[in-house]
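[Discussion] Sanity-checking designs against the backbone

I'm trying to build intuition for which residues belong where. Below is a structure token string of 610 positions. I'd appreciate it if someone posts a full sequence so I can compare it with mine line by line.
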């Protein structure tokens, strides 16, 4: 297999793992809740309680798989996909006698895909007044059929697969071979294949084991912070240049913050260090197995704090011992390799960080921590731009309600960046809400979005009306101080706004002066997104068809309005809400959806512009 083919294969596996992770990560809170209830209240728990322990079974059997199925369907086709996915998952649950996590990961996205194609099949073919009926029944019929398929096909197949994987794990544990699994897990983590391994294989089997035993060692295989800690401590003592300077901070972020990818560039700078993390992983898992310890749920992120919180009763000392032994083994091997190496690591670490980001397929969430000194020097001079493609906008504090740091997952470094800016705002006396989230979850009413430069274009497509600030890294950017200064300088802002007053957005509730070529999408919006708004959309579609106007007309709930809509038509009592939701769109207000002169006015306006 050529290098290009290998890279393509790795990228596909990473994408698959990322998709699996996207189904699991939003629901980690529920998994942790279940793990805590299990650890506390089962007969072998910290505080046995027969009544509260009754929640354990229903949560693992119904709640968690349904959440996964809903999330998987929603990833593919929004809320409709989520509802159909959750319903179909119920068939899988009933069709198997074990927790159906793998089944939910299959049937959820598949159901979303099915209803997506069903909706496309009926698009533009439904008569006026029948939209709600067709929408509800197509979803219901599809969900019912998929639930039956899940019961007879997906459930039994996934149950068989889970049993096979579980038997393989039991064989490895019984034969004392489980530590050897780390020979594959540790290199896979460096290649960013850990999501596919952890969420696709280990976690479903581990949850099944937890139901029977109250804990599972499998939760510790990939999340053990010991191997990475040992490598970073070795660099702290025996490293050189940038690697030695950054290793202590990286060790804190890795061990307590649980962001493991921060040590990957150190491994890539000296590939021989793979032996160190493998030695640490094998030693740690061997210790866990010998002491018979385990966790009650997936620790995410893999922080020592999360691991300690989810440790089964009586296992805390054993778990800590396994982590420390893993760190010691990794430290000893890494120290030997570093002492025998004469190569300068400074350039290696920078190159390895870039290599890591290339392998990951996107900007690392913590790479700025590894090159902070170098980037600080670059950004300290006015003539050396930071590489940001979007400048700090001219705004005033009174006009800004919300700033969001956005990245792929909405965690990791974006959370750190948000925390840094919050502190700067607090010191400057600026009262603006600062949060972090995934790009795909960005709301249309956000005022300023801060992203890494590689993700700014995606964020602009998601919320084109917001101000966008692009940074090289979230942990060290001059843009934060620029934004603070800009918000504090109200006089300058007022002058800049007067000089560059934006064109009116058309939010007058009247029919706007628009050109057909500039309009791609018109949406009728109401509270539920059905009923009369669907009928109004059908009426306007017919008028457009007769007039030869080719513009997409749909209907939906106000809360679901996308940021890229051009014209929104609402009842006059709801227009203000719609304006708040999508302030950049043109808004037309009507007395009723079934008989409004606005429709003919809009048709005439669009025809005149032709």
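Best answer:
Here's mine. Compare freely.
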């Amino acid at each position: 297999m050529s290098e290009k083919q290998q890279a393509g294969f790795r990228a596909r596996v990473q994408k698959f793992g990322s998709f699996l992770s996207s189904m699991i990560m939003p629901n980690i809170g529920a998994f942790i809740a279940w793990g805590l209830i299990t650890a506390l209240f089962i007969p072998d728990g910290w505080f046995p309680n027969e009544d509260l322990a009754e929640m354990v079974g229903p949560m693992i059997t119904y709640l968690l798989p349904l959440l996964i199925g809903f999330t998987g369907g929603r990833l593919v086709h929004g809320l409709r996909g989520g509802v159909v996915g959750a319903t179909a998952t119920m068939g899988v649950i009933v069709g198997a006698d074990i927790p159906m996590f793998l089944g939910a990961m299959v049937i959820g996205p598949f159901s979303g895909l099915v209803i997506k194609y069903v909706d496309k099949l009926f698009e533009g073919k439904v008569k006026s007044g029948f939209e709600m009926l067709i929408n509800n029944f197509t979803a219901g019929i599809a969900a019912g059929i998929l639930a039956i398929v899940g019961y007879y096909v997906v459930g039994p197949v996934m149950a068989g697969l889970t049993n096979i994987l579980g038997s393989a794990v039991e064989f490895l544990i019984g034969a004392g071979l489980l530590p050897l699994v780390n020979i594959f897990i540790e290199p896979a983590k460096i290649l960013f294949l850990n999501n596919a391994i952890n969420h696709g294989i280990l976690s479903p089997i581990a949850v099944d084991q937890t139901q029977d035993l109250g804990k599972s060692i499998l939760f510790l295989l990939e999340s053990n912070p010991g191997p990475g800690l040992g490598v970073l401590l070795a660099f702290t003592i025996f490293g050189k240049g940038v690697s030695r300077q950054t290793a202590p901070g990286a060790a804190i972020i890795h061990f307590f913050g649980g962001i493991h990818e921060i040590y990957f560039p150190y491994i890539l700078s000296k590939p021989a260090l793979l032996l160190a993390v493998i030695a640490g992983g094998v030693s740690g898992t061997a210790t866990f197995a010998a002491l018979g310890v385990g966790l009650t749920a997936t620790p995410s992120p893999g922080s020592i704090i999360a691991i300690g919180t989810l440790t089964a009763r009586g296992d805390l000392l054993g778990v800590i011992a396994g982590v420390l032994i893993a760190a010691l083994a990794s430290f000893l091997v890494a120290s030997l390799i570093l002492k025998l190496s004469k190569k300068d690591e400074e350039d290696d670490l920078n190159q390895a960080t870039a290599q890591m980001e290339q392998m990951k397929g996107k900007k690392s969430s913590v790479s700025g921590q590894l090159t902070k000194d170098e980037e600080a020097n670059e950004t300290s001079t006015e003539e050396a731009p930071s590489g940001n493609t979007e400048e700090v906008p001219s705004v005033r504090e009174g006009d800004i309600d919300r700033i969001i740091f956005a990245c792929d997952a909405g965690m990791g470094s974006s959370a750190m960046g948000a925390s840094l800016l919050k502190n700067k705002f607090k010191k400057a006396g600026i009262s603006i809400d600062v949060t972090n989230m995934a790009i795909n979850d960005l709301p249309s009413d956000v005022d300023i979005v801060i992203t890494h430069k590689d993700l700014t274009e995606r964020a602009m497509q998601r919320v084109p009306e917001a101000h966008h600030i692009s940074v090289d890294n979230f942990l060290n950017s001059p843009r934060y101080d620029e934004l603070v200064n800009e918000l504090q300088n109200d006089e300058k802002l007022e002058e800049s706004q007067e000089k560059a007053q934006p064109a009116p957005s058309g939010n007058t509730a009247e029919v706007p002066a628009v050109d057909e070529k500039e309009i791609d999408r018109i949406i009728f919006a109401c509270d539920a997104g059905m009923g009369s708004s669907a009928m109004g959309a059908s009426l306007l579609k017919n008028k457009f068809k007769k007039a030869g106007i080719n513009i997409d007309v749909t209907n939906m709930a106000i809360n679901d309005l996308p940021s890229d809509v051009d014209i929104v038509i609402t009842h006059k009592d709801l227009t203000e809400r719609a304006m708040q939701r999508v302030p950049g769109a043109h808004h037309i207000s009507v007395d009723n959806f079934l008989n409004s002169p606005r429709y003919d006015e809009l048709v005439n306006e669009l025809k005149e512009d032709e």
